[in-house]
Specification:
With 212 residues, this protein is an alpha+beta fold. Strand 4 and strand 5 form a beta hairpin. The protein starts with 40 loop residues before the first helix and ends with a helix. The structure holds zinc ion (ZN). The site of zinc ion has 5 residues, from helix 2.
Length: 212
């Protein structure tokens, strides 16, 4: 017998903690994320929602700032394929311990800068330490796309975007697209879809006092 049979049906769907991926030039993207003190049920839900958004948008990585959260945390899967669960990483308080293997310039994009791609120089190999969702310390040696994606995401946590790392020539090439995103942001703000800077900062500060 269904143990709930005699009770009126109650929706058990949890309200979403994360609404959307914020886009350049949203101030959360320039906010330096703070280390997390613990992993709790709510944080696990946020991570699940971040992974869902990342796969929905065909991304290979997503940092907490990109969903308007002030925490040092990112998710990634270099395959971008949710079926390849074993490639999925959740990295809490990540730290790049070393960069090696030389530098390589490759095309990058970002879910917070839709439609913009440009070449960025990154280390080809890194050693990354972090905590996982079980609160255990983990260490990875990453190379290729995984190393690039992790460096891109750690940059996010420091408030750095890939467009900050472009050569002047590459930046000039995407300037017009950046201006379009800036105009779109201002329009959305005028429509009341995006709070003002003061409200955004107050919200991030309140979230920080909760778990950092
Ligand atoms: Zn990004």
């Amino acid at each position: 017998m269904d143990s709930n049979a005699s009770f009126p049906s109650v929706s058990t769907a949890k309200p979403r903690l994360i609404q959307r991926i914020v886009q350049y030039p949203h101030p959360a993207l320039r906010h330096r994320a703070k280390p997390l003190r613990r992993v709790d049920v709510e944080l696990r839900q946020m991570v699940a929602e971040m992974l869902e958004l990342m796969y929905e948008r065909d991304g290979v990585g997503l940092a907490a700032n990109q969903v308007d959260l002030p925490y040092r945390l990112f998710v990634m899967n270099p395959t971008g394929d949710r079926a390849q669960k074993e490639q999925e990483l959740v990295l809490i308080n990540p730290e790049i311990l070393s960069r090696k293997g030389g530098m390589e310039e490759k095309q990058e994009g970002c879910l917070s800068l839709p439609g913009i791609y440009a070449p960025v120089r990154r280390s080809t190999k890194i050693v990354l330490a972090a905590y996982n969702l079980q609160g255990q310390e983990v260490r990875y040696e990453l190379e290729g796309l995984a190393a690039r994606a992790a460096q891109h995401e750690v940059d996010h946590l420091d408030g750095v975007l890939f467009i900050d790392r472009l050569s002047p020539g590459a930046l000039a090439e995407i300037r017009e697209k950046l201006l379009e995103l800036e105009q779109e942001f201002q329009t959305n703000r005028r429509l009341g879809l995006i709070p003002d800077d003061r409200q955004i900062a107050a919200r991030l500060a309140a979230l920080e006092t909760l778990r950092t």
